[in-house]
Amino acid sequence: MNRKSQTQQMTLQGGRVAEMDLRLDRFPANMRSLPLTVAPRFILALFLATVSSTVGCGKTNAAPAVPSPQVEVAKVVQEDVPIVSEWVATLDGYVNAQIQAQVAGYVVAQKYKEGSLVRKGQILFQIDPRPFQALLDQANAELAQAQAQLGKTEMDVARDTPLARERAIAQSQLDNDIQANRAAKAAVKAAEAQVEQARLNLDFTAVKSLVDGIAGIAQVQIGNLVNPTTVLTSVSQINPIRAYFSISEQQYLHFAERINAQTQKQIPSGGPPFDLILADGSTYPHQGTGLLTNRQVDTTTGSIQLVCSFPNPHNILRPGEFGRLRAAAEVRRGALLVPQKAVSELQGAYQLAVVGSDSKVSIRPVSVGERAGEAWIIESGVKPGELVIVEGLQKVQGGSTVKIRRTESAKGE
C-alpha cells in the first residue's frame, strides 16, 4: 500500500481528517518511524480528543438543584403528665432487735438455726441454769423462814392482846408484839421479792426472741461466758420492711404541706405509691407506701430523711440492700411534651427546630422542664400541635425548606 492510499483510508475513517495537513514530515521523527498501520489509529484518537475538548469548552454545565432534606417530625402534644422522681434507698428491718443476755453465765446450747425465721418467745440460747436454780431454792427457803417468823408474831399479838386489856401484862409488851408482827410482814414481802427475782434470773437463762423475724449469725459460741453487755445475735422484723431515702431541702419545702398533713396519722394514706428497682434492674412486685419523715434536716447534706414501707411476704428483701425508689410525686396539668431527641443543647441553652405550614424550618430557643419518660416538658417556646424535627437536625438550618418523611408521637412511641 502506497502513501496516497493510506491518506485516503484515514480520510474515510476520520471524516474531517482529510481537511488536516497529514504530511508525514510534520510528525516528529519518532512518529515517522512507526509502521504505516499504526499511524492512522493514532491520528484518529488525536482527532477525537480534539473534538471532545472543543465541544467541552464550548458548552457550560449548569449545577444541579440541591433537593430539600427529608426529616422526621413529631407533634407537640399537651396533656396531664405525672412527674416521676427517683431516689437511692437503703433497706432496713421494720424492727431490729439486738439479743443480749440478761444474766451472766456460760452458754450451754444454741437452739435456733442462723438465718432462719424465728417467732416471738422462741428460745435462741441457753445459759447454764444451775447457779440460778440454786439461788431460787435459797430465796424460797428465806421466804419460808420469814413466813414462819410472821406466824410467830401473829400468835404473840393474839395472845397478849386480851392480857394487856386485863392489865395482866404491860401495854409495852403488846406494843412490841405488834411492831414485831409488822416487821415480820415486811420480811415476808422482801423474801417474796427475792424469790421472784431469782425466778426471773432463772428464766433469763433461756434467751428468747422478742419479735418475729429473721435471726442473724450467732456472735457467741457454746462455752462462751456472757454477761448483760454481750450481744448474742440480732433479729430483724422484715415483713414489712422499711426503705430509707433522702430528699433535698428544696424538695421538702415543695411537698411540706402534703407531708405534714400525714404526720399525725397512724397509717399514712393519700401519698403516691413507690416502686422499688432492685440491684439487678428488676422491679419489686409489691408497691410501697410512705411511712414517716424525720424530725430534722441534716445540716451537713441539706437533706431530710423519709421512710416508706414495703410488704415482704417471701422475705426477698433484706436489711442492708440498696435500691432505687420511683414515685409520681405530682402531676403537671396541661404540660407541653416533645421527644427528648428533638431538643438540642448549645452552651447551656436549649432549642427546637420547628417546621411551619410552609415546610420551612425555624430554630427557636425554648425553656425546658422535667423529663417524663422519653418526653421532655417544654415550659415556653412552642405551642400545642406544632411540628418539631426529631431526626435530621444536622441537615437543616433556620429558613431552609424540608420534606417530612413521617410523623411520630411526641412521646417517641
Give a short synopsis of this structure:
With 413 residues, the chain is α+β, with helices and mostly antiparallel strands. It contains six helices and 19 strands.
List the helices and strands and how they pair.
Layout: H1 3-14, H2 29-32, H3 39-58, E1 70-75, E2 77-100, E3 105-110, E4 117-118, E5 123-127, H4 130-165, H5 171-204, E6 206-208, E7 213-215, E8 225-226, E9 231-248, H6 249-261, E10 275-277, E11 289-298, E12 303-310, E13 322-339, E14 344-346, E15 349-355, E16 361-372, E17 375-380, E18 387-391, E19 403-408
Helix pairs in contact: 1-3, 4-5
* Helix/strand class: alpha+beta
Whole-number average pLDDT? 84
**Strand fraction:** 35-45%
Low-confidence parts lasting 5 or more residues at pLDDT below 50? 9-24, 29-34, 42-59
Using the alpha-carbon principal axes, give the shape: elongated
Order of helices and strands: HHHEEEEEHHEEEEHEEEEEEEEEE
Percent range for helical residues?
25-40%
Radius of gyration: 51 Å
Number of strands: 19
**Separation of termini?**
83 Å
Largest sheet: 15 strands, mixed
